[in-house]
């Protein structure tokens, strides 16, 4: 009844272990989802994304209402632990990567669209979680950005990837032709706390510790603070901006 | 001129490797600070906290204006890498743990005091960074909280530990006797976006994924959101609350 894999040379296992890195995810068009809260939620709300459920023992899913099309696979302990990078000791889903379209930046924004270059997958995941919580209509990932289906991103995103419209945005230079209003979170700009948000806008977020390149043609917004630390955490800063947009629209 | 250590059995090296965990930090009353931005800043602004600088090659600090009381120690490659958990490949400071006093919760708060139980050191560090940025007057750590001088906390805190007043708060039950106003970030409370912050208050933050225990006698504040994700990241939520306090007082 259960498919069982105990060899690290097994081709299926080898392909799954490739999904721990962005390159393997792109190459194979698959991803791994782990997490005590995210896995049951994803199975219930978005079952068609998934094809396999990886477990250590058949008992792990005895009582689970598993859709027919999702095949359980039992992995030997060391194999399972290799894929369970967060140490959840809980079933892991294998999903099919959805197509990620190219953004049309020449069209005007509808709602709040995030343009983002966060290179750390955990930071990107936390940002996606805030983007879903505060109603961003689209997330446009620049080339520098981490892969949104990287395991560390998925872990931090709390299933936000399944509700967000995520597209590719190309290089920084692509923003020269982008339709506005363009806003950028950066030092030396207008005070975010009193900024009257337009309903439609593109909010640009730079790489961690880098900010937005000076040539990007956007109005700068700044989060006032004491100056007691050199800067805010990039995800925290972006989340605060999303919060003020959402709260202002209520 | 330089003290050199190449044996993993060296007692000084062994004591420093103990500083990678909270237990060793408490026991030895020392901590390790790493980071390309944090180390030079800490040496310039708070040199008296530190006693040693750990390096791999004397050339690393040839041009550094090193205070007399800070002794350079050259570590062999494998030893250095064991202490350089973030992989900075950059000098690491050994500091003396400052005394951490006990909070007096029966006295009324002055300014915004955070009461916090975040158990993950990286999350706590990011929170401390926001607390310093938005002018929290005090951070009161409950028993569940991570150690503020854990390397992962220091890495995320961006030197906020050196400007904040950090004290110990004991158990959750200690809050029964605490002077208010007591506020707690939790589901089902008043809307944070329109909340008129008092100048003096204690803001209570629960453990990740747990929230604040229901018996804690505090007014609940909630961050309005779409409901598209199960919850906000704990540090993000706390940082948004700190931002609204700071922005409201400007």
TrEMBL record, chains A, B:
Pfam families for the chain: SpoU_methylase
GO terms for biological process, alphabetical: methylation; RNA processing
Transferase among keywords: yes
SUPFAM superfamilies, per the entry: alpha/beta knot, L30e-like
Keyword terms of this UniProt record: Methyltransferase, Transferase
Entry superkingdom: Bacteria
Protein name (database record): RNA methyltransferase
Provenance organism: Niveispirillum cyanobacteriorum
